[in-house]
Write a structure and sequence with these properties.
The structure holds two protein chains of two kinds. Chain A is an alpha+beta fold. Chain A has six helices and eight strands. Chain A has one domain: Alpha-Beta Plaits. Chain B has 24 helices and 17 strands. Chain B starts with 8 loop residues before the first strand and ends with a helix. The chains are: A alpha+beta, B alpha+beta. At the A-B interface, helix 1, strand 2, strand 6 and helix 5 of A face helix 3, helix 4, helix 7 and strand 13 of B.
C-alpha cells in the first residue's frame, strides 16, 4: 500500500452481524472477543447499527492529548498506533476524541484504537465478503476523497434512525 | 471445565431475592449439551416428581434461559428458554436469535434458572460482576419498543456511572416481555430485538408470573475457550463462505414462502385452516420488499444468512410500525389465516404482536379460531363488542387488545385455542374442537399436512413432544435428532447451519467425540424421551391421553376444498401406522409411553417410577 488509507463506512448497509468484531479480535487477541475488538457495532435501537471505530481525523487530537506520548501515527497507513508500554490507561485520548472512539481494553486497561491491521483490515474483508459493503477501504488522494471527522455513535444513530424509520425515527433514539 | 462453556449458570430465586451460581458435572453437559436438552434435565431433576402439581404460571415453576456450548462461537447466536409450559404442561425448547446469547457468555454465564416470584416488578441485570435484581415498576405495562429504549438508556447510564473511565459503554442486550406476558396470556412470548420472539410454549406468561419484566446483560469478557481454536477459526471462515452463497435465503429470508407455500405447496393456513391455498400475488416477496423493507440484510450476532429484513410503515394509518419482514410464519398467521392479503395490514399486526409480546403464531391462531366462530355465528357481535370479519385488520387489532387486556371474551381467548375451545364450547353447548387447530395445546405452525407437499406430514405434529411446533417436528425418531433437537440444545440457529460442518464444529469447540449417529441414537432420543415423560405427566389443569391426543386436529382430516391438491387430506390409517413405527423406533410402548427398558438404556431409570403410573 503506497498511500495512507482509511475505512469508509456506509452505516445503513450494516447488518449488525458483528462479524467485524469477531474478525478484529481474532486478529488482535487470538480469539473471539467482541469487547476487545477495535471496531464495535453500537445498537441503540434494533436496526440502528453503527460500526464505531477510529476515523483518523486529519489533526489527530488523540495523539496530541496523550501525556505519555503513547500514541503515534503510522506513516504508511495513517492509523493511530498505541504503544502498549507507554499507555497508562488515563483516558485522555477518549476525552480528546470528538467521537469518543478509543476505549480501554477489558483486561489490560490500556487504550485500544484501530491500527488498520497494518494496511489490510480484517473487518473490511469480512464485511465485503458478505456483500454488505458497510465498510470499504479507500486510499487518500485518489480521486476526490473526503475523510470524515470521528463522530459520536449516537450522532450517527440519530440520522440513521430517521433514514430508516422516517418520523418514527425521532422517537426511537 | 468443558470447552465452549462459560462454566457457570445463575440460579435465581426471586421470592427469596437470592442469587447463586451453579455448575454441572461434565457428564451431564455431555449428555444434554445446553438449551432445550439441559432444560429438560434440570426441570426433571428439580420438579419431576411433583410435575403434575406444578402450576406453570405459579412461583414454583422454573424459567430456564440457556445457551449451549456452540452458541455465539458457531454462526447464528441463539438462546433457548424453557420451563413447564403453560400451554402443553410439558416442556418446549423455545428459541430466538439474539445478541443476548453472545453477551451472556461474554459475561461469564451459560444461562440462568429463575424461580420464585418477585414482590413487585423487577428486571435482572447480568454483568461480569454477577447478577442483580433491579426495580422495574416504571417498565411494567410498557410496550416492547419503549422497554428497549428505556432499558438501553438506563443500563448504559448505570454502567457508565460504575466505570466512567473506560470509554463509551455499548448498549446491553436484553430479553423482555410486553403487556401480554404481564397479564399471563398463555400464548405470550418472550421478545428480543424488537421483533424476535421465543414464541412457542408460552414462556412470556411464565416470566410475567414471576414479576420479571426483562433480563438485561452486558459482558466484557471473551467468548469461552474452545478445545481446538485454530480448527474452529478455519471452520468458521468456511462456514460463513457457505452461508453467504445461499442466495435465496439471504435475499428473501422465509418471506418468499408467503406466496409459495400458499400457492405452490398448498399448505398455508387460510381463514383458520379452512383452506390451505391462495394465489394472492400480493403476498410475494417483492410487494413487501419494494414498499416496506428499510433494511434488506439484518443479522444477529455471528450470522451472515441475514434472513431477517426490517419493515417500516412510513405513512398512512399504520405509520410508525416496525417489524422484521414479517417472516413466513407471521405472513401466514397474521395474514392469510385472518383473511388478510394486504402487506401493510400484515406488517401492522406483526408489529402490534411484537409490541404486546404475543406469540405471532400461537396467539394469532386463537384469533383465527375466534374469527371462524364469528363466521359460523357461534360468536356474535354481542359476545365480542364488535364485528370480526375476515380481512378486517382494525377488528383484529381490537381483538388483540381485548385478549391482552383480558377484557370480556378476551379473558377466555387469552387461555389459548384449546382451552378457549373447551370453555366457549361448554358455554355455548357445542363441540368446538373441529375448529381448534392445535396439538397438545400448542397451536400448529403455518405448515399443513394435507397436501403432503410441504416438509410436514402425517405424524409431524401428532407425536411431536412439542405439539404443533413447526420448528421441531417428529419424523422417524432418528432424522429429527440431528436437526432441531441438536440445534436447540447446542444452541444455534437452524438457518445458520451447515450439516456437513456442524459436527466437526461441535467437536472442535467441545473436544468431545461427538458424532451424528450418537446424537441420533443416544443424546437426541434421551432428550426427546425425557420431554415426552414430562409432557405425559402434564397437569395440573390438563392431562394428555396418548390414545386420544397423539393425533392431528380434526381439521387436518377434512379434504382440502381448493387449490392444486383439492380433495387431498391426511391419511388417518397412515398416521396410525407411522405412529406405531415411531413408538417402536424410539422405544416407547404401543400407547407411546417410554418403556422401562428404553429408560434404562438412556440412563433415565429414575423416570421409570413415574411412567409406571401411566402404563396400563
Amino acid at each position: 500500500m503506497s498511500k495512507p488509507i482509511w475505512i469508509v463506512r456506509d452505516y445503513i448497509r450494516c447488518s449488525g452481524c458483528r462479524r467485524c468484531e469477531i474478525a478484529c479480535s481474532l486478529h488482535h487477541e487470538g480469539w473471539m472477543w467482541p469487547e476487545a475488538s477495535r471496531i464495535r457495532v453500537f445498537m441503540p435501537f434494533p436496526g440502528v447499527e453503527v460500526p464505531h471505530f477510529c476515523a483518523q481525523c486529519d489533526d489527530y487530537p488523540c495523539v496530541a492529548s496523550c501525556p505519555m506520548d503513547a500514541l503515534s501515527v503510522d506513516k504508511l497507513t495513517g492509523a493511530v498506533i498505541v504503544n502498549q508500554e507507554k499507555c497508562t490507561g488515563c483516558g485522555d485520548c477518549i476525552e480528546a476524541c470528538p467521537g469518543e472512539v478509543p476505549y480501554l481494553h477489558p483486561e489490560s486497561n490500556k487504550a485500544i484504537i484501530c491500527d488498520l491491521c497494518g494496511g489490510d483490515p480484517e473487518c473490511v474483508k469480512v464485511c465485503q465478503e458478505a456483500g454488505y459493503d458497510a465498510l470499504y477501504l479507500v486510499e487518500e488522494d485518489v480521486g476526490v476523497q473526503k475523510k470524515m471527522h470521528a463522530l459520536h455513535p449516537y450522532v450517527v444513530a440519530k440520522d440513521l434512525a430517521l433514514n430508516l424509520y422516517g418520523e418514527k425515527g425521532e422517537e426511537v433514539i | 471445565m468443558p470447552r465452549g462453556y462459560a462454566g457457570k449458570y445463575l440460579d435465581v430465586d426471586l421470592t427469596k431475592e437470592r442469587i447463586d451460581e451453579v455448575t454441572f458435572p461434565e457428564e451431564m453437559l455431555h449428555d444434554y449439551f445446553g438449551g432445550r436438552g439441559l432444560a429438560a434435565k434440570v426441570l426433571w431433576d428439580r420438579l419431576g416428581r411433583r410435575w403434575a402439581k406444578v402450576d406453570p404460571i405459579g412461583s414454583e415453576n422454573i424459567l430456564t434461559i440457556l445457551t449451549g456450548p456452540l452458541t455465539a462461537i458457531h454462526p447464528g447466536a441463539r438462546a433457548a428458554v424453557s420451563g413447564k409450559s403453560p400451554v402443553s404442561n410439558g416442556t418446549v425448547g423455545s428459541t430466538a436469535s439474539t445478541d443476548f446469547a453472545a453477551e451472556i457468555k461474554c459475561a461469564g454465564y451459560d444461562g440462568a434458572f429463575i424461580t420464585g416470584k418477585a414482590s413487585s416488578p423487577v428486571y435482572l441485570l447480568i454483568t461480569d460482576n454477577g447478577a442483580e435484581i433491579r426495580d422495574a415498576s416504571h417498565l411494567w405495562g410498557r410496550l416492547g419498543e419503549d422497554t428497549i429504549k428505556m432499558l438501553n438508556a438506563e443500563v448504559r447510564e448505570e454502567l457508565t456511572k460504575r466505570k466512567p473511565n473506560i470509554g463509551l459503554w455499548k448498549e446491553p442486550s436484553m430479553i423482555y416481555i410486553g403487556p401480554a406476558g404481564e397479564n399471563l396470556i398463555r400464548n405470550s412470548a418472550i421478545v428480543t430485538k424488537i421483533a424476535h420472539a421465543f414464541g412457542y410454549g408460552g414462556y412470556g406468561a411464565v416470566m410475567g408470573s414471576k414479576n420479571l419484566k426483562a433480563v438485561v446483560v452486558k459482558g466484557r469478557g471473551p467468548l469461552p475457550e474452545v478445545a481446538a481454536p485454530k480448527t474452529v477459526e478455519i471452520l468458521w471462515r468456511e462456514y460463513h463462505r457457505r452461508l453467504i452463497s445461499r442466495d435465496r435465503m439471504r435475499r428473501w429470508g422465509t418471506g418468499y414462502a408467503g406466496w409459495e407455500v400458499g400457492s405452490v405447496t398448498s399448505s398455508e393456513p387460510v381463514r383458520n385452516w379452512q383452506e390451505e391455498w391462495h394465489d394472492e400475488r400480493s403476498f410475494g416477496g417483492p410487494r413487501f420488499s419494494t414498499r416496506y423493507w428499510v433494511k434488506r440484510y439484518w443479522s444477529d450476532f455471528n450470522c451472515t444468512t441475514s434472513c431477517m429484513k426490517i419493515s417500516c410503515i412510513k405513512s398512512g394509518r399504520w405509520k410508525g410500525d416496525i417489524t422484521d419482514m414479517p417472516d413466513y410464519e407471521l405472513e401466514a398467521y397474521l395474514g392469510t389465516n385472518l383473511g388478510i392479503f394486504d402487506p401493510g395490514d400484515n406488517i401492522h399486526l406483526s408489529a402490534l404482536f411484537d409490541n404486546l409480546g404475543m406469540s405471532g403464531i400461537n396467539g394469532a391462531n386463537t384469533m383465527g379460531f375466534a374469527a371462524e366462530l364469528y363466521q359460523r355465528g357461534i360468536l356474535t357481535k354481542e359476545d365480542l363488542g364488535f364485528e370480526l370479519n375476515w380481512g378486517d385488520a382494525e377488528a383484529f387489532t381490537k381483538l388483540a387488545w381485548l385478549i391482552v387486556k383480558r377484557e370480556g371474551l378476551g379473558d377466555t381467548l387469552a387461555e389459548g385455542t384449546y382451552r378457549a375451545a373447551k370453555k366457549i364450547g361448554e358455554m355455548k353447548g357445542i363441540d368446538l374442537m373441529p375448529y381448534a387447530v392445535h396439538v397438545k395445546g400448542i397451536e400448529i405452525g403455518a405448515h399443513g399436512t394435507r397436501s403432503d407437499e410441504d416438509y410436514t406430514h402425517d405424524i409431524s405434529y401428532a407425536v411431536n413432544v412439542q405439539g404443533g411446533d413447526h420448528t421441531s417436528i417428529a419424523v422417524d425418531a432418528y432424522s429429527e435428532m440431528d436437526d432441531a433437537v441438536f440445534m436447540d440444545s447446542a444452541v444455534v440457529c437452524m438457518f445458520a447451519v451447515d450439516q456437513d460442518l456442524m459436527w466437526d464444529y461441535a467437536k472442535a469447540v467441545t473436544g468431545w467425540d461427538i458424532t451424528r449417529h450418537k446424537w441420533c441414537t443416544e443424546q437426541g432420543p434421551r432428550i426427546v424421551t425425557l420431554q415426552r415423560a414430562l409432557l405425559l405427566l402434564g397437569g395440573p389443569d390438563i392431562f394428555w391421553d396418548p390414545d386420544r391426543d397423539d393425533d392431528n386436529p380434526p381439521r387436518f382430516y377434512e379434504p382440502l376444498p381448493s387449490g392444486p391438491y383439492k380433495g387431498r387430506t391426511t391419511d388417518r390409517e397412515l398416521v396410525e401406522r407411522k405412529k406405531q413405527q415411531y413408538y417402536r423406533a424410539i422405544g416407547w410402548d404401543e400407547r407411546g409411553i417410554p418403556t422401562a427398558e428404553t429408560l434404562e438404556k438412556l440412563g433415565l431409570e429414575d423416570v421409570d417410577s413415574e411412567m409406571k403410573k401411566l402404563r396400563k
